[in-house]
Each structure stands twice: as C-alpha cells, then as structure tokens.
Amino acid sequence: MTYIDATFKGFPGHLTPVELSQVGVQGWSLLKGHLSFPLAVLKQSALTHNLAWMQDFCNDRNLDIAPHGKTTMSPALYNKQLQAGAWGISFATVFQAGLGIRNGVERIIIANQVFQEPDLDTLSGLLTQHPKVRVYFLVDSLAQIDAIEAWRVSRASSTIFTVLIELGIEGKRTGCRDHSQAMALARRVKASAGLQLSGVECYEGALATCNHVHDQATVAALMSRVQWLANECEAENLFECDEVLLTAGGSAIFDLVAEHLTPLLSRPARGVLRSGCYLTHDHVQYRKMLKCVGERLQLTETLKPALEVISCVQSCPEPGLAFLSMGKRDVSFDMDLPVPVWRAQFNDLNTRGVPAHWEITALNDQHAYLRFDPNSREEEHPFVGMLVGSGISHPCTTFDKWRWMPVVNDDYEVVDAITIHF
Asked: What pTM did the predictor assign?
C-alpha cells in the first residue's frame, strides 16, 4: 500500500498518514483550507473529458495511442489511459519503462535510443521477469547497434530486442537524416542476432509553429519519408514481426500526423500516436496549439486544462505588487510563466475569475510576483490570505515538482489522488 504523509509537499504535517486509495473519502475541501498550499491539483471533470476526447479522435481515424508516460510518471494515470483504450504507454528511458512494467503496462515504446550497458542489463532483466511485456525502442546509428552487439557478446545474452528505426529532421532531435542511412541501418538490424525490426518512428513536434500552411507541408514531408522507409523495408523483407508499427505524434500537431499515420503496407500494421500532454492539457502553450488544431478540424471544443497550482497571497508589500506562496519549486516556467485563473476566500466555497490586469511576471524559488493595477477598484486587489488558482504551461515540468496530486471535483473537494515517481 502507498501512504501519503508529512513527507509529501502539500500534506499537513499534523495529520496521520493516509493510504492513497482512502484520500478521496477524507472529506477534504481545498476552499476550506484542509490541505497546505501551494498545491498542484488535477480537475476530475477535465481529465474525464480529455481521456474520452482523445480516444474518440483516435478511433475515428483507426489509430491507436500510446501516450507518453514521462509527462506524468504516474501509474494511476497510466491505468486511466489504458482503461480508456490506450494501446500502450510510451517512455523516454529504461528507468521510466521499469515504472510502467512494475505497474502492469504490457506494451511499451521507449521513444529514445537504448545502448548503455546498465540499461541493456535492466531491460533484459525486465523482459525475462515479465514475459508478457513487449518493449520497442529506437535505433538511429550503426554505432548504437555496435554497442548493443558488444553488450550481447559480453553477457552471452540470448535476449532479442525489438526496435524501430527513427527518422530525424536536420538540425533537430535524434534520428536518421536521410533514406539511405535509414535503409543501411534496417539491413544491419536484420543481420543482427540480437535485434528485430518492428517499425518506423519519428517526432514532428519540433516543426510546430501554428502556421497552418507551414505545419501541414512540413509534417506531410516528414510522414512521406516514414511511409517510404516502411515500404522499402517491407519490399526487402526487413521487418521481423507479426505487426509493423508506425508511430509519431507529440501533443501540439498530432492532427496533422494522424492524416498520414495509417500504414500503407500489405502486411498487418498499426499507426500509433504518442501524445502525452493531452491528458492534463494546459492554460498557455498547448491551449494555443489546440486552438490551431480546432481551427484545422473546425471544432468548437477540444481539450480542457486539468492541472492547476493553488497558492495563497502571502504579502502585499507595495502598491501593485503581491506575492503568491508558490515558485520555481512548485510550478513550470520553462516555456511560460503561470497565469492566475481564479481567486477565492477561505470558507467562501466559491471561486471568481481574476481581473484582467493581474499578471504573474516573475518567479523566485518560493515566490511568485503578482502584478496588478493599483488604481483599480479595491475589490480587484489581492489581499493577504486570498487563495489564487493558477494555470500552467507545459505539464511535464509541473509534474516533476510533486510526489502526489489530489484529484478534485469542480467545487475543489478532494475525490481521489495520484502519486508521481520522477
């Protein structure tokens, strides 16, 4: 059993430890001040909406999803995604994949290169201990294959790893830069006793600009390379699998990838999106990107932000400036600063939107600078003790600052909780 206790930020130190499954029956209300702030929370209604929305999106296009588990590192959320219909879960490292395997995930894409000896030792051991588990990882160089084969000889290992060729973009992240390099790699995989080729992977997120013409053209070109490589590998009988995977799809322009992800092969094949941030969405970066998705698909509704960080006004030392009790230790700031969304007074049990002139302009380790118009009406001024709920930008780097998050209903009553394992 997992217990939440005083070692978890946001859990009051005077309370006795609570078993995770019992958090939702404690009767905690955030607006009544039952937990400590700052506190990152997940809104249940938005999570439910986002799970269903993305699964419908995939079903309508005959695609599958293996959402990126590195976004949350939360087994409870993986379970929700799998129950909603996810084909598997993606990860970025063997360490992360181990968390998934230990918590019942049986199909895993490690969307990264694996080649270090301790990682190969670990992955080989996990596959031996969990024979039902299928793990795919990426290869993009002959040097990587040399390292894997040297490990195999040094360990006298009989493990056969299942791999995907990664196609990359010049000047961007990992992956083969041209078709001939990728084909040479595929042939080398076929010749290796320790590897089996099962598909092709790419990552298009670096192309996203919200310029529809640009994004459509660049994604189409990238996915054309993916299909070309898959067709050539099939023609040379280089795949050694029951089902070929074609996989792509970050969280920004997944709709454009989806147009081209249906495999054009004669053998059984599966198109798999890997979007991860869709589950919680956000209030800035991905909200902007999903607005563009909605424009392209002519949708009136897409995803809803589910992740908020709640803090208190702790000081109002001068006109036009207040300080919130959250900072870089609590909330993401790598893409955009958090944005104040709502305000409340303890025991009021109602939240109100914030005035348009409120803005978080900077963060210290434990403080947020909330600027406001000192000439506005008094009722629009923050005051010491006020609760402020803030939206975030880029969920990944808020999750990694917390070991747990309460799940709340729309009245900010705690109905569940998750743990996080970065």
From this structure: 0.96
